[in-house]
Amino acid sequence: MRGIEASMALGFARLGADLLVVPKGTLVNITAALLTVEPTPHTMDVSVTTEVTRTPGVRRAAPQRFFRSADSYCCIIGQADLIAFDPYRDFTVLPWLREKLDRPIQKGDVIIGGLRSYKVGEQVFFYGQALSVYGRLGRTGVGTYDHAFFLTFETAEALVQGSRSKPNVIPLELEPGKISALLVQLDVDATPEAVRFAIGKNPEVKVVVGGSPITPVRQALTALFNGMLALAIMMLLGTALMVSVVFSAIITERRRELGLLKAVGAKRNQIARMILVESALATGSGGLAGVALGVVLLRFYRHSLIFHLEVINIPFIWPTAGSTLLIAVGCVLLGALVGLLGALYPAWRASRQEPYDLIRGDG
Question: What integer pLDDT is reported at residue 130 of this predicted model?
Answer without folding.
Answer: 87
